[in-house]
TrEMBL record:
Pathway: Purine metabolism; GMP biosynthesis; GMP from XMP (L-Gln route): step 1/1. It is an enzyme of class 6 (ligase). It comes from Entomomonas moraniae. Homodimer. One of its GO terms (molecular function) is ATP binding. This is GMP synthase [glutamine-hydrolyzing]. The chain holds residues 206 to 524 of 524 of the full protein. Residues 2-194 form the GMPS ATP-PPase domain. It comes from the Bacteria. Keywords: ATP-binding, Glutamine amidotransferase, GMP biosynthesis, Ligase, Nucleotide-binding, Purine biosynthesis.
């Protein structure tokens, strides 16, 4: 009988058999799949699990703190947080080509992840949040979720010298099943049903060269958009929503003065499979509220636009 409780029972059993007394390493991104794996492995093998969470400086507002408070503080999972913002932003300085940005972010992730895991003793297994659709389309470079460790260490892509054996408890599950298991394991609804977030994070939502200043502004604007979507009960009606930073300045008026500041675009889409998508028909009142808040609360943003492009021919992300 397929119930989340049965599946969890079964999976914890299997994991225990597979790893025995060995230690397991997991790259925790804060996304649904790796979070569910963390919760599951914690239940199955407790302190034999160590997670590494890499803060690349391109995460959403408070994301790193939230991951730490949920897993480390609340659940007692061993999580090592690597604060690598300066390293990532340093390597990204001067780079504006989207594919090159992705590559740098991916490689730097591996570098930091390896560095952190090399400090640990006696790790024999690497756990991953691979789910069934990843197994099928493991070749896709731009899938809906592949965080970097996946595309690097993933099915068929294992580096030759990798000594770690894989633990992939979600390999046979679809996304909706993973979510149900997450809830059953006690993860909060808003975590389990969070919109997908690309591996390169805000790095592909800052057009062109990435700067710390831009990431800071984008984080604030994105936070406002998401907060208002929740307030208006629209968050769970759209498949993905976010703000895009445009390194373009536009004029506005504030009080008696002229303001020459940055432009951002709101993006919200409805989709089943992320291969095609329709821009979400958000209520004008909601767009108005978001736009007012962003322009009033963030001094360095003077204009907000709404992206009405569908996929295809546009993509969901702007880069
Ligand atoms: P596009 O922009 O291709 O996005 O229409 C489809 C879905 O994929 C996500 N996306 C990525 N995810 N690494 C990821 O892990 C990436 O480089 C990447 N690019 C796009 C995007 O957020 C959407 O859900």
């Amino acid at each position: 009988l397929w119930t989340p409780a049965n599946i969890i029972e079964d999976m914890t059993q299997k994991v225990r058999e597979q790893v025995g007394n060995a230690n397991v390493l997991l790259g925790l991104s804060g996304g649904v799949d790796s979070s569910v794996v963390a919760a599951l492995l914690h239940k199955a093998i407790g302190s034999q699990l160590t997670c590494v969470f890499v803060d690349n400086g391109l995460l959403r507002l408070h994301e790193g703190d939230q991951v730490m408070s949920m897993f480390a503080e609340n659940m007692g999972v061993k999580v090592i947080r690597a604060n690598a913002e300066d390293l990532f932003l340093g390597k990204l300085a001067g780079i504006s080509d989207p594919e090159q940005k992705r590559k740098i972010i991916g490689n730097t992730f591996i570098e930091v992840f390896d560095q952190e895991s090399n400090k640990l003793d006696n790790i024999q297994f690497l756990a991953q949040g691979t789910i069934y659709p990843d197994v099928i389309e493991s070749a896709g470079a731009k899938t809906g979720k592949a965080h970097v460790i996946k595309s690097h260490h993933n099915v068929g892509g294992l580096p030759e010298d990798m000594k770690l054996k894989l633990v992939e408890p979600l390999r046979e599950l679809f996304k909706d099943e993973v979510r149900k298991i997450g809830l059953e394991l006690g993860l909060p609804y808003n975590m389990v049903y969070r919109h997908p977030f690309p591996g390169p994070g805000l790095g592909v939502r800052i057009l062109g060269e990435i700067k710390k200043e831009y990431a800071g502004l984008l984080r604030q604007a994105d936070h406002i958009f998401i907060e208002e979507l929740h307030n208006a009960d629209w968050y769970h009606k759209v498949s993905q929503a976010f703000v895009v930073f445009q390194p373009v300045k536009s004029v506005g008026v504030v009080g008696d003065g002229r303001r020459y500041a940055w432009v951002v675009a709101l993006r919200a889409v409805e989709t089943i499979d992320f291969m095609t998508a329709r821009w979400a028909h958000l209520p004008y009142e909601l767009l108005e509220k978001v736009s007012n808040r962003i322009i009033n609360e963030i001094e360095d943003i003077s204009r907000v636009t709404y992206d009405v492009s569908s996929k295809p021919p546009a993509t969901i992300e702007w880069e």
